[in-house]
Amino acid sequence: MAKPLTPAREFIAPSDLTFGLSTCKRCLWIKYWYKLIMPGQFPLVGTLAESQEEHFRRASMQDIDPTLQPGVVKQWGQWVRSDYIKVDGATTRWRINGKYDLVAHYEDGSIGLIDCKVTDSDRHNGAFYAPQLEAYAFALEHPSTGKAFTVATMGLLVWNLNGVAENADASYGFGVNQSYLPVERDQEGFTTVISDFIRLLEADMPAAGSECPTCNYLLERLQIED
Hints:
Elements: E1 11-12, H1 19-22, H2 25-34, H3 45-55, H4 61-64, E2 71-76, E3 79-81, E4 86-87, E5 90-91, E6 95-99, E7 102-106, E8 111-119, H5 126-141, E9 151-166, E10 172-183, H6 187-202, H7 213-225
Parallel strand pairs: 1-6, 8-9
Antiparallel strand pairs: 2-7, 3-6, 4-5, 7-8, 9-10
InterPro entries: PDDEXK-like_dom_sf, PDDEXK_AddAB-type
Domain PD-(D/E)XK endonuclease-like: 79-217
Pfam families: PDDEXK_1
């Protein structure tokens, strides 16, 4: 199959620096060059994430976690787009484009970036999500247009589902345990990750991931159809 002259999309989604790289590089490559994505169904993810985000609008950062400096959540659910990314000193065709969850403004003019997670697992940790958060930070600090901000803190605001709660009016709701996980800034690490990511996209189509459920499904289906 001939590689197109230009990719179908030239904006890198921050989440692809975590989930994309950790799953199948072939599926990731096809997504950017052909804009072809395996359909997925997550009916409650968006609803729960939106509820979590709404709950913390205009919240005090010290109410979220007492170790954070004084500040208030003033922005939420906004799209950010970065300037063109450089790799080895050369400007590429690629830019970051994504929608962050929460941004707080501190008293010294810097900002805090918060990514909201609703989960029933314990796999959420700062190291795994650091590239995704750094991508948002890069776009906020190197925007394609508008004011640049200094990102002082990053973190995950996690709700772990812990069962069903009954209210006084006999209605029911999900109970959660809340935790804030700080994510240390690692701009050098982000430079390595984004550079490798762009080199992957600019190369030829990689091999299918041996544990990729999408690729394995397609291969097994072709064998049945043959």
